[in-house]
Amino acid sequence: MNSQRxxxxxxxxxxxxxxxxxxxxxxxxxRVVLIDAYGVAHSRASSGGxxxxxxxxxxxxEIYTRWSQRSxxxxxxxxxxxxxxxxxxxxxxxxxxxGDDARFRQTVATLTRCGVPFEQIDVKALEKRFPQIGFDGxxxxxxxxxxxxxxxxxxxxxxxxxxxxxxxxxxxAQVLRPPGSGRANEVxxxxxxxxxxxxxxxxxxxxxxxxxxxxxxxxxxxxRQEVFFFGVPAGDGRFAPPALPTFLFQGDESYGMPDLExxxxxxxxxxxxxxxxxxxxxxxxxASAIEEIRHYVARRFPALRDAPIVExxxxxxxxTSSGDFLIDRHPGMENVWFVGGGSGHGFKHGPAVGEYVTxxxxxxxxxxPRFSLATKARTQNRAVF
Length: 385
Ligand SMILES: Cc1cc2nc3c(=O)[nH]c(=O)nc-3n(C[C@H](O)[C@H](O)[C@H](O)COP(=O)(O)OP(=O)(O)OC[C@H]3O[C@@H](n4cnc5c(N)ncnc54)[C@H](O)[C@@H]3O)c2cc1C
What we know:
The chain is α/β, with parallel strands linked by helices.
């Protein structure tokens, strides 16, 4: 089967980056087709989780603070146009730090510079306000009252619906790597269809290295990440908002969310797990991770020491060497773009990523060096958190 239609842009991948890219391009009046191998924010996608944190704190990495500010505005605008669901929950985000923490001080400086409201809380006040948390080793807290959680997979579905409303087309098919070099005129799908377009944006998240093994196979590091939900005691409001905000224990490399939509307290370690294949990795949590997280929950949320694990999820980060995004042209194909490398923190930035990609394609805006392919090494040295 051959498609006669020529699109301005074909966006491959309907995770958060591809969805927002399609939305921005459609908003600018471009003919867009959005294609995904498995569906919108499906269970194997990095965007397929129930919830993702949106916070402004990024240490000294002001670019991500500003992109997060810009993105929250756009998320809220998009949700406001749809009345049905609360897809952003303003739980507040509580940072907890122990010892002499340079990153914590940098976050304070950056948030101040960027005009982000926040409150610094000493340990005595933390213990009084959040008696359900175990604060051993914690010396300071910082609360972003207007940050919170995005209901991730449903939020991406909402973006795709809005992109379609603006005129984008959506298809479910696997796109094959464009052959040759120079300029791509079309891509083929595993259905035998050819899709012609002026530009091709590959927003394939953890699959980028599989689609472009020669250029990206050694530059995208998909890592296994295990997530747990602990059931809260019956009738106990201490683990739901507003009693408990979204939280990040910087020194422990852990994060989590309060009991949202009665799914239980979400908690996970932010450390990179083993390298995986996103098509085939097991989505069942490991016994060793269960043991580790139980031990950890007993320390930080003592009342949940014996709480049942009511849900689990296994996902993957799609890390670059530094944690900076990858948004750049294919080195050998002038109209083929890579968009990915969310590196465990990309979800919140979907709107700003889509806007930037659109600006690069339509307005030829100045490229941000941190997002270039040239800065992506073949060994990992995480610098952005
Ligand atoms: C456990 C976990 C917790 C996280 N927590 C946070 C958080 O709190 N806050 C935050 O901001 N970020 C967080 N992140 C990171 C964030 O979720 C990701 O950075 C983001 O979702 C990446 O989106 P993406 O669109 O690049 O990739 P994906 O969502 O994986 O989308 C890529 C899509 O491309 C499609 N695709 C691939 N190859 C092809 C092909 N050949 N043809 C057609 N389609 C194809 C796939 O099917 C997939 O749907 C977390 C990630 C994980 C795993």
